[in-house]
Amino acid sequence: MTTKTVHTFILNSCCSGILLLMAASARAELTDVTQTTPNVPGGAIEKSLEQQIGAGHGDEFTPGSSIYLIKRDPTRSVRRGRQIFQRKFTHDQGLGPRVSNDSTGDIHENPALGAGLTDSCAACHGRPKGGAGSGGDEATRPDSRDAPHLFGLGLVEMLGDEITSDLRAIRDRALQLADHTKEPVKLPLVSKQIHYGFIQALPNGEIDTSMVEGVNPDLRVRPFFAQGGEYSMRAFSIGAFKDEMGLESADPVLCQATDPVAPIKTVSPAGLVYDPTLDKIKHPPVCNPNEDGDGDGVLNEIDPAIIDHMEFYLLNYFKPGTGEMSARAKFGLKLMKAIGCTGCHVENLRIEHDRRIADVETGFDPKKGIFNRLFATATTLYDTVDDGQEFPKLLPKGNSFLVKNIFADFKRHDLGPAFHERLYDGSLVTKFMTEPLWGVGSTAPYGHDGRSINLKEVILRHGGEAQESKENFAELSDNKQQMVLEFLTTLVLFPPDDTASNLNPGNPRTDNPQDPSEHGSINLGALFQIPAEGKE
Prior knowledge:
- The protein has helices at 3-12, 49-53, 66-72, 74-86, 153-181, 233-245, 252-257, 304-315, 327-339, 455-460, 467-475, 478-488; strands at 31-32, 44-45, 137-138, 145-146, 185-191, 194-201, 207-208, 266-267, 273-274, 321-322, 349-351, 358-364, 374-380, 382-385, 393-396, 401-403, 412-413, 421-422, 428-429, 432-433, 491-492, 500-501.
- With 536 residues, it is an alpha+beta fold.
- Helix 4 (74-86) crosses helix 8 (304-315).
């Protein structure tokens, strides 16, 4: 099926039943109707966990495996990942405990013990409804944390990885020049017009990283977790399953990259490279599917296929949208730039090699938008490769892509003592990754700890490296401050099951505006290539 054929298929399917496929994932958390749970219309998963695992990890020639779907029906893999994200896991599937049968342990050694046990990803990342959004307060530190939204997470991973490659290329160039000239060589570390200080190479092959700013000496950008603790969505997911749910995965991708005897470079199904010679990679909780690492009597709790679908879902997950933009809000953005906010909150960043298979642009549209007056436009980003199999491969184009309205610089900064957070041993974390501002209009309260009640208060809480821009904001008139806040409130999240799109435009003239089936949806099911065998 060519890209042109796919688009024709979308247009011809707008009135067919296939456009209702995504509507079955309406709630933040979904139960499994193949188990003894109620079949609430629009509030359940039609496939069992075993059916979602299918033929397992497999390969691109094993029908029903996760790799097969990622290569030949990628939007179906995204759909599987979305349902897994919303799935409520059970004790029979290995839910809890996280450490041992009594969940005891040293909280200093394992901070995850301070977190509350949950039964789904959506329990912490479920607002707005049906989306991988923000969530409640979790006590993973004495000062707690406010679970962040995951919209645009794949774009964040790709940007962090590309910046890392750029910085390391500059380091390698400095080493080559120092070896050639037999003199110390000092070069600026700049990627995507963001400055990370300087690197100095010495003729003897040593590297001076004392002038590096905002990133670790290994130059690996780690955009996940507030303090910059992880660079991989796959490792992030495996860790969350373990730390928050007590579910363990013997993931072959990370197990091979962290093998204590012979680690090897691996590539995940979503295209991220894990090189143990360059990075410290977190070892999965178990690496043998027959090992009961947490002693709960359940083996192979999270099959690698589940991790594959989850990673691919997060890679392709919708980026935040933009709400109604008034003239005052537009001027608010100009004021943000004038007072220095965009020194750290960089508005737009370019990805050079996009690994996604689709993009969804969501914005204010009073004519086509129904619920929240937002409308989403999905565009496929893959080429078709016929390799003689029943279904051709659908592979990412890998084009350059400008990520708009992200407002981040992928650096760690010290924002002053009002943002510092305690660890359980009493020490302080003083530097945090710049929080991307996209979606900020929908995610109160603010701060990693969720202690700032509104946007104005979190701005005024800034200090340290942001002291000057905070003071510039404070000196604005009340009217101009309000313009800045009005712009920030245009950076929104949205419920994908209630947002009309070119994949399911809904009924703009509905007489029943509270009926979700009338709202339209971002129905990725319209892009499935392989005919459905039963409900998804």
